[in-house]
Amino acid sequence: QLRNPANVTMHRRHTTLREKGRRQAVRGPAYMFNERGSALTAEEERFLDAAEYGNIPVVRKMLEESKTLNFNCVDYMGQNALQLAVGNEHLEVTELLLKKDGLARIGDGLLLAISKGYVRIVEAILAHPAFGGGLRLALSTLEQEMRDDDFYAYDEDGTRFSHDITPIVLAAHCQEYEIVHILLTKGARIERPHDYFCKCSECVEKQKKDSFSHSRSRMNAYKALASAAYLSLSSEDPVLTALELSNELARLANIETEFKVRCPIGFSSFFSFFILY
Which parts of the chain are ANK repeats (predicted)? Predict the structure, then answer.
């Protein structure tokens, strides 16, 4: 059966996810209960504390001089040094960490910076070679799960974001105009979801595998497309685009019940923006 290319791909996907699950098993709250997970060394504890509190000299010295430091270690909440530094808006520490080859969870760091509106940290992370060519900006965490790396945390403990979220979708949700502009200049765009009745292999597979996640991803995409930040910066005629989206969502509200309550929200804020400014 594995001779079928589709079966080979699915088998590889399941195998990869299973291995990632094993690798992530000692992360997050497991550190409080798992003997393996609780074995942070004194050096690692000191390093994570320094990153969390923005102790630049200590972080720099440990990164440059220590031969035994695992700079990707995580605390009992599943956060690594990069996530701790970004979450506490320590730009200098973030820049020091980004210089290290093999740094994990860069994608989670970017999403965290976007959610908090830390523009300078967003710019620093986007300057990392991992974002060369803009490919990473176009893919969600779910779409990148087949990559054998730790660019995103694949467990629920390490990330607080939905797995269908991309950086520009999150920036649009948060109405972060400056960050949306930065991402647009990097080539990031929000793809409009396929028609509800689309029968392409991708849509059929997503609907069959997890209809809830598929519906949620459509909601997140339309919410981002309808945001004032994205509409005003990405469209030559934002008002016309908003009206077209409004008509599309009104049609979808008769098909997908999830859109009945949510579809007017983005447009009301968008038109308020034009009335005020």
Answer: 163-195
What is the secondary structure of 41-60 as a DSSP string? -HHHHHHHHHHHHT-HHHHH
The CA R_g of the chain, rounded to the nearest whole Å, is 21
Task: Return the ∠ at Cα 259 (arms to 168 and 145), rounded to 5°.
Answer: 40
Question: What whole-number distance in Å separates Cα of residue 267 and Cα of residue 201?
Answer: 32
CB distance 179 to 117 below 8 Å: yes
The whole model's pTM is what? 0.76
Grade residue 132 by pLDDT with cuts at 50, 70 and 90: confident
Please choose, from the candidates 64, 53, 37, the residue with its C-alpha nearest in 3D space to the C-alpha of residue 88. Answer: 53
- The closest of 192, 248, 254, 203 to 225, measured between CA atoms, is 192
State the DSSP code for 244.
Answer: H
Three-class SS of 124-173:
HHHCCHHHHHHHHHHCCCCCCCCCCCCCCCCCCCCCCCCCCCCHHHHHHH
Rounded mean pLDDT of 76-84?
A: 92
Q: Where in the chain is the domain with CATH 1.25.40.20?
A: 1-162
Q: What is the mean pLDDT of residues 133-161?
A: 66
Query: Does 67 score more than 80 pLDDT?
Result: yes
Query: How many Å separate Cα 182 from the centre of its chain?
Result: 16
User: Most confidently modeled of 68-72, 161-165, 272-276?
Assistant: 68-72
CATH of domain 1-162: 1.25.40.20
